[in-house]
Amino acid sequence: MKKVSYAEFGGPDVLRLIDADKPHAGPGEIRIAVRAAGVNPVDWRIREGQMRPALPASLPSGVGLDAAGVVDEVGEGVTDVAAGDRVFGEGTDTYAEFAVLHAWARMPEGLPFEEAAGYPSVMETALRVLRECGIRPGQTLLVSGASGGVGSAVLQIARDRGITVVGTAGAANLAYLRGLGAHATTYAEGWPERVRAFTSVDAALDLAGAGVVRELVELTGDPAGVVSIADRTAPEMGVRFSNVAGSVPDALKETVRLLEQGRLHIPVEEAYSLAEAAAAHTDSRAGHTRGRRVIVI
């Protein structure tokens, strides 16, 4: 099978498309024929070596956590799916023609593989940071970097829960945020004053790592109400840096519920082939994403 791999930490140029043996599903796992794999910032952060020692990687290493595809092999003890079922979930080395998943859910009828591959890690992260920041129905949440995958999920989950959201993004993505039900403003100079003009803020999320944690604390009035997934200096200001994943199966269950009720849709901004994985990482790292980027096999 074809698989994206790297033998040393570094830039996107270290990625190689190689021939590899198919992995096998162990107990409690499944193997899928991958149809699409999600491109997440954590993928290139791991490749760059940023995640050591929290996520140590033995080299050479594959790439990717999220995927959607068709069940190809079922491990011991798995009874909820069978070969031929369409599933999406989280596993290892998903930038490949075949991959092993350790958490999965059946795909709702009509959901494209490309879209499904973008949900697992994004929804787990969105649900986690909403829980950690303590936001409640009827309150107002500020989201910095709101147009990417996690931001898109946060906005839609918040809307479903009766939470008002103010989102910041590039000028080209403001209409997109408004379409998801958020008040929107650019992150150009003066953005805190523009946010104050909308409303007072009860909690805030830093999803882009744009050096705005101090302003988020000032707007909320309490560092305990601010959570970052992208700025490792956040704890220096009393802000939680969230990097420990919660329950992926629970996140997938909630994803399916929202999808089936028509309350969730994260668009695929761009799709890449396995051979274009380096370009996918370059574009993901550049930011300004509207929705998701995926690898299509």
Number of DSSP helical runs? 9
Low-confidence stretches: none
Structural class: alpha/beta
Kindly state the percentage of residues in helix.
Answer: 25-40%
Indicate the radius of gyration in whole angstroms. Answer: 19 Å
For the sheet with most strands, the description reads: 6 strands, mixed
Number of strands: 15
Mean pLDDT: 95
Give the H and E element order: EEEHEEEEHHEHEHEHEHEEHEHE
From the spread of the alpha carbons, the general shape counts as globular
N- to C-terminal distance: 11 Å
Q: Classify the beta-strand content into a percent band.
A: 25-35%
Verbal overview:
The strands form three sheets. Strands 3, 5, 6, 7, 14 and 15 form a six-stranded mixed beta sheet that branches. A six-stranded parallel beta sheet has the order 10-9-8-11-12-13, with helices on both faces. It is globular, with a radius of gyration of 19 Å. It has helices at 41-48, 113-116, 120-133, 149-161, 174-179, 191-198, 213-220, 248-260, 277-286, and strands at residues 2-6, 16-19, 30-39, 61-62, 66-74, 86-92, 98-106, 140-144, 164-169, 183-186, 203-206, 226-228, 240-241, 268-272, 292-296. With 297 residues, the protein is an alpha/beta fold. The longest helix has 14 residues, at 120-133. Helix 3 crosses helix 4 (149-161) and helix 3 packs across helix 8. The model has no long low-confidence stretch (mean pLDDT 95). It contains nine helices and 15 strands. Strand 11 (203-206), helix 7 and strand 12 form a beta-alpha-beta unit. Residues 10-295 form the Enoyl reductase (ER) domain. One of its GO terms (molecular function) is oxidoreductase activity. It holds the Pfam family ADH_zinc_N_2.
